[in-house]
Amino acid sequence: MTPTQLVALKEIAKDGSGVNSRLAEKLGISRQAVSGHLRRLKQQKLIYSKGRGPGVVYRLLPVMSKMHEFALKGLDEQRVWRETCAPVVASLPENVRDIWHYGVTEMVNNAIDHSCGSVVSVDVARNAVFTDVFVADDGEGIFQKIQRALDLYDPREAILELAKGKFTTDPDNHSGEGIFFSSKAFDAFDIRSGCLHFMHESGFLDFLLENPKNAAGTVVMMRIANDSKRTIKAVFDKYAVPDEYTFAKTVVPVRLAQHEGERLVSRSQAKRLTRRFEKFKTVILDFDGVEQIGQAFADEVFRVFQNAHPDTKLVPTSVTPDVKAMISRAKAARAEG
What we know:
- There is one protein chain.
- By secondary structure, this protein is an alpha+beta fold.
- It has three domains: 3-60, Arc Repressor Mutant, subunit A; 64-234, 2-Layer Sandwich (Heat Shock Protein 90); 242-336.
- The chain has twelve helices and ten strands.
- A five-stranded antiparallel sheet has the order 3-4-5-7-6. It has a three-stranded parallel sheet with strand order 8-9-10. It has a two-stranded antiparallel ribbon with strand order 1-2.
């Protein structure tokens, strides 16, 4: 594959419309030359197109795929890995294979140990740019199970607990790290369960969508570029205390505590946000997407919680001037107290 073809494939992966003009501008070549490259990619069965003329849309074609359904009773996640994902990613770089091994076995093990379902299906599709894996079970649903385990008022609060990390409904047998580290290892990591769809994409805001259809079970989607330079070791190291290798730092998207139509103003919202923060030495509070917070919310987080747990360092980031002012006010009150 030529460098130009690789650029074309990555552009199509981003957006399949307007490819000819975008590539001509990006590569500094004529649209006729672009058409020649796209035609060769179609001949290699790496892409296909729909429509004609200016409205043509290009899509990536899978070059390898596997799908299999397994009964959960007595299932070994290593068997699932060997029979589904391993053959599809075998020729990818070692660091990418390691991330896939970790993510697939963790998600399948979650289905085995936590879903209370009867079957799990694994769907793997690799194209010329990235690989997708879907792991779906027919169990209770991850958000509903966490809601029940923690006696939460709203299943949306379960997503906030997952985002923090170190949460499991079976602490005797699990560390609660699998979903947290998997979400950070992949370029995209989505969970769909019930009426909720949580999306995490590297370098972007986390999103929570509500679906009208109440879907059964849990579906996890993972995606990573085939040529990614990320390593699973680097992901673990990022959230560890130096020389201790313990999961001691977390990044919490504060906007997940802000349900649609709400502002973060109350102490009860702050208490939900800070639940289990004391399990970490450092909590990075990412305020991206949060325009304002109330005095009571800021006071509960940055004075009340911090006084009760001085060994946990709270680090706010991506703050607006209004949020920064409220945080400073709460910290000043703590210093005076």
